[in-house]
Amino acid sequence: MEAGRELPPAGGGGLPVVLGFAEAPEARGALAAGRFPSKMGGAPAWLDPAGLPGGAAACACAACGRPGLRFLLQLYCPLDGPGRARCFHRALYLFVCPWCLARPARAGPGGEGAPPTPRAPAGAFARGVRVFRSQLPRVNAHYPPDPLPPLVVEEVPPEPAPAAEGEWVELELVNEEEPGEEDTVRHGPEEARVQAMIEEHQRREAEAEAAGSSGEEEGMADDGGAGAAGGGDDDMEEEETEAEREQDCWDYFRERVGRAPDQAVRYDYGGHEGPLWPSLEGRPESVPACPRCGGPRDFEFQVMPQCLLHLGQDELAPDALDWDSIMVYTCRDSCGPEDGGGGYVEEFAWVHRNAAGAVRANKG
Predict the structure, then answer these.
(1) Residue 354: its pLDDT value, please?
(2) Spans of all domains in the chain
(3) What is the pLDDT of residues 320-349, one digit of tens each?
(4) Global pTM?
(5) Cβ atoms 329, 268 nearer than 8 A
(6) Which helix (H) or strand (E) holds 94?
(7) Nearest to 267 by CA among 32, 68, 78, 48
(8) Which residues have a Cβ under 8 Å from the Cβ of 129 and sit 6 or more positions away?
(9) Nearest to residue 278, comparing CAs of 210, 240, 328, 324?
């Protein structure tokens, strides 16, 4: 394990939020499994090569049933503390469904005129993401107990390998503590595109709000103004208060993201600050308990929409993937297979999408 590559071990409260930034690796071989990388794109660098998530079910979207989930990213995030020797090595792997998380404009797999993408049953949330966790003790069958010698950092970082079909370009996730409000903002090469994304989000929100206002005005016209006779002022005041709360939420989200506009991941396991929500709406009413041990799940990290910009996706394409944030929650005890070694277990993820989006994704 090379210093600065892995996320700081989580074990107590009050830890700072750690941000992940996508960069070209500084040395060849830095993203190999034995280096325990945090990375985006490419193929998974599986922590346990002997116990991969098996069967067709692990490769298919739980909402639409389509095979071909796309690997988005992985985080190397060991845990320390009493009773956590089994988590000396620990990694999370996030996969997304390119159909369920495509923009609503997409008609189906073949574009316009093609059969529509299957949807989840009415009243259910589409499960367009899946997240798997793996962990190993220090002494295991796959890796030496001591760190490998550091790699030679090259003066000119190696060019990322061309992406294989069905994969995004492979980039390293480098972590830094989130800057404070008064600290220098980290500006990266994607800043202009990130700002464009924020403006696009604001435009969609304004369109959704305008459409809602138009519908309310039509309703008032249909009832002949009956609503003005009683309670109208109170209702309007309540609506204004809700609008103010929503605006405050969005302003806070924008301010925190603005401290480091090219952040791709926010990691806050043990910090207890929780997800950074862009809206008051679209949040899960509850997070399901771990089905293996029955214990609660805690928020661990969220994926920001900037990650798709880093991976080279054309955000204006009609079939582009789209989300505001993907929130990942994991078992508080990080329980594992009964034998205590290796393998993969599935955790819970929630996709928050803007008001103009189609689905929020949920897996447990």
Answers:
(1) 64
(2) 18-221+233-363
(3) 888 889 999 999 999 976 655 678 999 999
(4) 0.79
(5) no
(6) strand 89-96
(7) 78
(8) 94, 95, 96, 97, 101, 326, 349, 351, 361, 363
(9) 324
Q: What is the DSSP letter of 330?
A: E
The two three-digit tokens of residue 164, written as one number? 């294989």
Q: Which helix (H) or strand (E) holds 315?
A: none
Half-sphere exposure of 94 (CA within 13 A, CB side): 30
- The two three-digit tokens of residue 318, written as one number: 């009609």
8 A C-beta contact, residue 37 and residue 172: yes
Alpha-carbon span 227 to 307, nearest angstrom: 46
Q: What is the pLDDT of residues 97-120, one digit of tens each?
A: 988 888 763 333 333 333 333 333
C-alpha 228/C-alpha 235 separation (Å) is 10
Name the stretches of the chain with pLDDT < 70: 1-14, 55-56, 104-127, 157-158, 183-240, 337-341, 354-364
